Amino acid sequence: MKKSVAVVLLLLLLAQATGAFANQFFPTEGVLRVNAFLRAEPSTDSRKILTVLKGTTVTIEKMVNNNWMYVQHGKSKGYIRADLFYDTTTGSPNNKPPEQSSGGNKMSGWLPAVLLRYGTRGDAVRQLQEGLTALNFNVLEVNGIFDSRTEDMVKAFQLSYGLTADGIFGDKTREALNDALGFYFEMNR
Q: Structure pTM?
């Protein structure tokens, strides 16, 4: 997740630094991965104009202070933190907005819908580790390897949310973690 945000910010900085030529790379639309406040100024202390819901597409007019987007939503204009948008600069399915599953429920927009357990490796494990670390379930090292420490933190998370503490990151644990992260991001904007 941090890598995705870093890529977007790097592209946006490049666009600002190189002038008109790079503006063709600047995204004109952004999709929110969590509910976000549209603010009057680029600051978490500024007045909240309205709440823009997760999954909403807004028009991005410019980047401000390297971490805020000046956007238009309907007739309202204001600022939203850049890290609250999906990374739409890659074709990776982990960075796309949530899709409708065949059951009609939205799949996770943050954590991929794959089964993770001890021994699994890859970007999905890294995202899991980042999510657990954000919620103070410290996995020690965010390395993309589902090691014994990651398994212990998944178990601790499962216990704290009333789930079966088997250390396997399946559908119920993913849903609980996504809900917890959504609340975390909402409270920490």
A: 0.44
